[in-house]
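Hi all, posting the design record for the shared folder.

TITLE: backbone redesign
STEP: 1 of 1
STRUCTURE INPUT:
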């Protein structure tokens, strides 16, 4: 132990440095008013690829974002190294307010919702007419998710060379859905791709579908050759497709490479997502589905509180009986509401 004399001075006393630092703590975070706006095109294992003006920038979340998720389609504020050079990394310091959010749960028993994409305005539901067989229950569930998110649904039927579309289209005739029917030959010669592209122009469209329905093949026919993704084949024994798309990715349509990150000009954007085998709806509020039926919504004013719209006291029965809407429309609404309560495989 070091000892000092009878009259030690300040030079004899060792002052220990403050290991916690001398800067006082504060809850005030920088506003990053000079941050640049980017558009998230893909997210992979913590690395977030963004389009910033005419270049691609790889970024990570800043610590101040906490657990806030960043998903494909988000508009984000970027700081740091924005050069886009190899091995550089920017920081995302802010996620701008989302205009729309498409969500799902892993299963109906899963209480945790997952955001698939943000800021889309159209949901393209891709379904094969054969190989694999169409799954109307899955289509119904995708429709519920689209209506809940405020997205306009588009039904795209593939492989019409193997089976006709008439039966399936009749099932959805009362929904007033926009639809396109395609087959591989038409995709190769460009006719089908042209029809689909007309429905996508100037919009941000999310593509969802069961594995093996030809979703990625369709996307590849729409985008530039250098942006195409790997495709797979359907298992002849199980009738199921193999997941070849492992993460969601936003891809600009030809002629749209130099447009704004919002995708609100030029050719538009397609967001290809991994093939799904289920679409959980545990997070959906049934009261929001009625908004997709403007001819029925006024009739709910006399419904009892918390009406499920499928019970004896529901006012929609009288509304339809009075001739304000077609009975088939009420059946369609109740079919979608039932889809939320019924498992897709039932």
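Okay, here is what came back for every position:
SEQUENCE:
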């Amino acid at each position: 132990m070091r000892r000092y004399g009878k009259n030690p001075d300040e030079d004899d006393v060792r002052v220990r440095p403050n290991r916690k630092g001398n800067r006082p703590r504060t809850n005030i975070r920088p506003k990053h008013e000079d941050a640049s706006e980017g558009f998230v095109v893909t997210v992979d294992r913590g690395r977030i690829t963004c389009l910033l003006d005419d270049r691609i920038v790889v970024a990570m979340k800043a610590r101040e974002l906490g657990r806030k998720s960043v998903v494909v389609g988000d508009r984000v504020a970027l700081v740091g190294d924005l050069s886009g050079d190899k091995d550089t990394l920017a920081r995302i310091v802010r996620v701008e307010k989302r205009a729309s959010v498409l969500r799902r749960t892993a299963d109906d028993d899963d209480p945790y919702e997952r955001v698939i994409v943000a800021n889309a305005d159209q949901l393209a539901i891709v379904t094969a007419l054969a190989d694999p067989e169409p799954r109307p229950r899955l289509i119904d569930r995708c429709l519920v998710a689209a209506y809940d998110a405020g997205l306009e649904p588009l039904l795209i039927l593939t492989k019409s060379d193997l089976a006709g579309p008439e039966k399936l289209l009749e099932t959805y005739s009362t929904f007033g859905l926009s639809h396109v029917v395609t087959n591989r030959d038409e995709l190769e010669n460009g006719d089908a791709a042209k029809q689909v592209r007309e429905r996508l122009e100037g919009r941000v469209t999310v593509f969802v579908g069961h594995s093996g329905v030809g979703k990625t093949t369709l996307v590849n026919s729409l985008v530039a050759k250098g942006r195409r993704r790997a495709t797979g084949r359907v298992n002849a024994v199980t009738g199921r497709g193999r997941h070849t798309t492992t993460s969601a990715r936003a891809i600009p349509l030809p002629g749209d490479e130099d447009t704004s990150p919002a995708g609100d000009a030029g050719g538009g954007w397609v967001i290809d997502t991994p093939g799904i085998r289920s679409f959980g709806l545990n997070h959906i509020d049934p009261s929001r589905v009625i908004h997709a039926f403007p001819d029925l919504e006024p009739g709910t004013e006399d419904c009892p509180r918390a009406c499920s719209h499928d019970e004896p006291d529901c006012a929609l029965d009288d509304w339809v009986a009075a001739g304000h809407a077609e009975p088939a429309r009420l059946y369609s609404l109740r079919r979608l509401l039932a889809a939320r309560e019924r498992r897709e495989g039932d």
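COMMENT: The domain at 286-341 is CATH 1.10.40 (Ribonucleotide Reductase Protein R1; domain 1).
Let me know if anyone wants the other runs.
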